[in-house]
Amino acid sequence: MESQKKMMVVFGLVAAVFLQCVAAQTTHVVGDSVGWIIPPNGAQQYVTWASGQKFVVGDFLIFNFTTNSHDVLEVPKASFDSCSSTNPIGNIITTGPANITLTSSGEHYYICTFGRHCQSGQKLAISVSASATSPGSSPSAPSPSTTAGTTPGVTAVPPSSSSPAVGAGFVLCSLSLVMGLFF
């Protein structure tokens, strides 16, 4: 009986630690309520947005845009700087909203390949840290000319700093400890 109690407590702690690790992932809604559009304030809009974020491997980017009006493509820095879709990293995402998981640390560059959207500022440069303890910063993007634009019908998903797994982890851990003490 004592052995079962210990196993239950250990299982509960392992499960709680696992859920806490999952909960550490952050969902970043690119541009917040503005979404992924030709920014009214030019490229500085996404530079400013990114500078207020901390990106870590395992985090999620959500690009809110209307399908057939915008797209998302990850590109190397040279292609980002020239707004070129040559040498893409992965496939172009044409259906909005686009959800991207950050799977590697380092600099990441995203552009919209529709018309002159990228030249008008619809581009995002971020720096992704390997872990939550590493400092993260966002590089500055060159400021191209400003062209106002909006994307009607885009529904922004509110940003969240953690997932519901935090509460689930707490409940599971508490329940496991209680069960271990009384059974």
Automatic annotation (TrEMBL):
<dbReference type="GO" id="GO:0046872">
    <property type="term" value="F:metal ion binding"/>
</dbReference>
<keyword id="KW-0325">Glycoprotein</keyword>
<feature type="signal peptide">
    <location>
        <begin position="1"/>
        <end position="24"/>
    </location>
</feature>
<dbReference type="InterPro" id="IPR003245">
    <property type="entry name" value="Phytocyanin_dom"/>
</dbReference>
<dbReference type="GO" id="GO:0009055">
    <property type="term" value="F:electron transfer activity"/>
</dbReference>
<feature type="region of interest" description="Disordered">
    <location>
        <begin position="134"/>
        <end position="163"/>
    </location>
</feature>
<keyword id="KW-0186">Copper</keyword>
<keyword id="KW-0732">Signal</keyword>
<keyword id="KW-0479">Metal-binding</keyword>
<dbReference type="Pfam" id="PF02298">
    <property type="entry name" value="Cu_bind_like"/>
</dbReference>
<dbReference type="InterPro" id="IPR039391">
    <property type="entry name" value="Phytocyanin-like"/>
</dbReference>
<feature type="domain" description="Phytocyanin">
    <location>
        <begin position="26"/>
        <end position="130"/>
    </location>
</feature>
<dbReference type="InterPro" id="IPR028871">
    <property type="entry name" value="BlueCu_1_BS"/>
</dbReference>
<dbReference type="InterPro" id="IPR008972">
    <property type="entry name" value="Cupredoxin"/>
</dbReference>
<dbReference type="GO" id="GO:0005886">
    <property type="term" value="C:plasma membrane"/>
</dbReference>
<keyword id="KW-1015">Disulfide bond</keyword>
<protein>
    <submittedName>
        <fullName>Putative Blue (Type 1) copper binding protein</fullName>
    </submittedName>
</protein>
